[in-house]
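Assemble and predict.
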Amino acid sequence: MKLGNLILIGLFLVFIGIQFVPTELPSVESNNPEDIIQSGIVNEEVAGILKTSCYSCHSNETNYPWYSYMAPSSWLVAKDVREGRKELNFSTWQENDMIKKLGYLDDISSVIDDESMPMGIYTLMHPSAKLTEEQRELIVAWAEDAMDLVVEEDEEDWEEEG
Amino acid sequence: MKKLFFLPALAILGLLFIQGVTKSEPETKFISHEIAPDMPPQVKAIVEQKCYGCHNAESKNEKGKKKLDWDEFEASKKAKQMATKGKIVEALENGDMPPAKFLENKPEGKLTEGELATLMEWSAGKKKSPKE
């Protein structure tokens, strides 16, 4: 009994202590003129899926849940968002050149197809982000078509210049 | 006694000669593979020798196969090929390929400077108008 109490008090103190470890959540920016959704290659249905299942980590429009303001979960959230944005940030889509865009779309198609995204730990906490089989197929098909669109767009740019 | 030396000497000479003859051939032999028909032959030869071993449809190296499969590359559409080429440039620029771990056991698998340049030039594509 006494030992149990001591452990509980110890854990509580540790919990309080770690709240003072500085963690910086990546900042949220809602005005993103270079976002993929305004780029003309995303229809409404796909935009909706991207927003609910991808944007928390892969855009500047992160929706931070309550536990992201509390250690130790805040550490994990901060790390995942930082890494997610670094890997692919939909908010800065138009800053990529054509080849980079094609690479991203190709990657999207494969990580959605092999179900490695959205990450399990994310869908565990956000069940609504889980993709149904139909949604996966939709995203894969969209990514494949969007690759052609991106190439066409680029060719038009060339023609305008020349 | 002198005859005893003569025979092995002849054999060694013969071996040297055979080596000299066969050496000029294997380079061209490898190119016959079915990788992307429109790929320039010098690129094809390098891919065949230095990449295809892991990056093919039957590869036991799952990661290598997933990242790039030359058999699939051939069959895929233009946009996909362009995407793949972009990733190849990135991997080559970073010096990620062939992997350092792989080269530990197989140092001869390393790309020579010339090969690297040829692959880079091909995968980066020539900067001319796509109208042509």
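The first helix of chain B runs from residue 2 to 22.
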